[in-house]
Amino acid sequence: MDSNKKRYELLIGFVTLIISLGLFKDELAKYSIDIGFAAFTAANYFFFVVLGLGLALYIYVIVYVLKSFRRLQDWKSLERIEVIASSIFILVIASPFLLLLTAILYFIGSRVLNLPKEQLANISSIISLFLTIVTSISTIILTRKVYTQRDNERKEYIESEEIIQLDRAAKLYEQEFYSQAILEAFKVLEFHLLKLISDRGIYLAPGRFNYSELINYVTKLELLNSKELETFKEIRQMRNMAAHADRQHTKSEATKAMEFIRYLISKKSSD
Fold first, then answer.
1. Is residue 163 part of a domain?
2. Band of the pLDDT at 24, cuts 50, 70, 90?
3. What angle do CA 137, 142, 145 make, to 5 degrees?
4. Residue 194: which domain range?
5. What's the pLDDT at 271?
6. What's CA 217's distance to the chain center, in Å?
7. Are residues 204 and 133 in the same domain?
8. Chain centroid to CA 180: how far?
């Protein structure tokens, strides 16, 4: 969530900066940019920059709104749409460098190599098209890597929390604090199921989901069979009684919870 907030703030900052340049549109219109196959003013360029950044921002907002609907959170197309928005944003930011490089090549061709104007225009057009394609492909690849890295970091966090909670549950069990062990054991179960769900390309933020949502994905993705699901619900009931009814659970109940956790983890490892 924080990374998305920073992304939106950065994008809005760029849009605001570029739009503010519109106050100087008359001055910008006096500066022409010639890259051989096309000539335009600085005002025209900033206009298209505003359109590009505005489009990226619009797509980000649409994706953000759609993700607020729980039924659409596992829609994989949303990530692809977000990649498109990020690619547009990076491409717009990189456009000054593309224009500068094209202008330098045009200058070398016209002033140094003394190429004919028509030939130079064709060469500049091809070079500009090539640079745009290369930049676009590189942008998409880079953006996808960023999203892949983000997903891997999420999975690593869930796995580390699962290990931490399991270690706490085991220590509490050894110290004969059985109710507290069940409380920690259920946290392990939740993190383990979150990890299984994330392996299917769906991310539920720890602490930001409800029980029915978790069960819905567990059932939908067939992560647990009917018997395992019943055991999970039983352990959840024990957890609720320990947390809200202040019931002191027995060693056999805590043992059942710990054994079920180890069974699920070993089952995943053997798959």
1. no
2. low
3. 130
4. 176-270
5. 55
6. 20
7. no
8. 35
85 with 119, same domain? Answer: yes
Query: Is residue 57 in some structural domain?
Result: yes
Q: How many residues does the chain have?
A: 271
Domain count, the chain: 2
Report pTM: 0.56
Say yes or no: 22 and 148 in one domain: yes
Query: pLDDT by residue (tens digit) across 113-125?
Result: 776 767 766 776 7
- The answer to whether the CB of 257 falls within 8 A of the CB of 185 is yes
**pLDDT tens across 97-112, in order?**
877 777 777 777 767 7
Between helix 2-20 and helix 42-67 the angle, nearest 10°, is 150
Mean of pLDDT over the chain: 76
Nearest one of 238, 204, 208, 240 to 220, comparing CA atoms: 204
Question: Is 202 within 8 Å of 73 (Cβ atoms)?
Answer: yes
What is the tens place of the pLDDT at every residue in 37-47?
Answer: 566 777 777 77
Task: Specify the long-range contacts of residues 9-18, CB closer than 8 Å, at least 24 apart.
Answer: 11/53, 11/56, 11/57, 11/60, 11/89, 12/57, 14/53, 14/93, 15/50, 15/53, 15/54, 15/57, 18/46, 18/49, 18/50, 18/53
Pick the more confident residue, 159 or 225.
Answer: 225
